[in-house]
Amino acid sequence: MIEIEINDLDILIENIERANPRARQHSIGLPFVSASTNDLAWAGRIKDAKAVAAPIHELIVPTRHVPRLDDLTEDEERALWELADQRIEQVLSESGINAATILINDGEPAGQTVGHVHFHVLGINKQSLIDDLGAQFESLTDRYSEVAVAPISKHQIVTNDTDYLCQKMREFREEQNQIHDYNLGFSVLSQTQKQDSSDPYNMTIQSWNPNQARPFGLTNLIRVLNEYRDRPYSWSKTHLQQHFTPT
Q1: How far apart are CA 169 and CA 157, in angstroms?
Q2: Number of domains comprising the chain
Q3: 88-119 residue pLDDT tens
Q4: 20 to 30 A from 234, CA-CA: which of 106, 192, 215, 225?
Q5: CATH (domain of 10)
Q6: pTM, two decimal places
Q7: Given 116, 118, 120, 243, the catalytic residue
Q8: What is the extent of the structural domain holding 211?
Q9: Would 219 be classed as within a structural domain?
Q10: 241 lies in a domain?
C-alpha cells in the first residue's frame, strides 16, 4: 500500500482520470487530509466538518469509475475490502476512538447518493454505537419515515477473512438478483463494531425493493446518531450522476 500526502494527490487523480477521462467533470470534490492506495482502490480521510459522519470518516473507493457493487470485478471488490481492513487497523490505533465500522449504500433503493461505489470507514467514540447498530438504524428510520419499510431479505456474516466476506456478499447479491427481476439496492452494515483489529467482522447485508426503498442511507442515519445532525435528510438524485475523486 502506498501512503500519499495531500500535496501529492494529483498523482492519484491522474490515474483515475486515465481510467475515466470525465471523472473530474462529474466528481464531488471533497477535501482530503491524506490517502492510501493499492492498484485498484484508494482511501481518503475527509476533513470537511460538514461532510463527516463520525469523528474519523474515510472513503474506500475503486480507482476505476464503478457505479454499483455488481459492476466491480472480483479483484476490485477484494481490493476494496483489503484496503478497508488496513484502514480500520489504523483508525483503531488513534486516540479517542473506541471502535470502527464499515457502512455501504449500494443503489438508489438502499440510499446511495453518489453514483460511484464507496465504502465508509468510520471511527466512533460513542459506547452506545458499538453494539446492535442495526437496531438503532431501524428505530431511527421508523421515527422519521412516513411509511413502514423493511428489507426484502438479509444475511449475516461473521468472519475475520475478507476474502470469505467478499465471496458471501457477492453470493447473496447474485441470489437476490436472480429471485427478483427489478433493480435491487443493498445495504451493508456492522451489527457490532470492531474494537480491536483482531475482532471478526459481524456484517449484515440487506436487499431493498425500489418500490419500498430505504428512505435514508446508513451514513445519513449515523450522522444523527453521532449528533452531527438533528434528523435524517434527503439528497438530490442528481448526485447519482457524479463520481468521487480526491480533488
Answers
A1: 8
A2: 1
A3: 999 999 989 999 999 999 999 999 988 889 99
A4: 192
A5: 3.30.428.10
A6: 0.89
A7: 118
A8: 2-228
A9: yes
A10: no
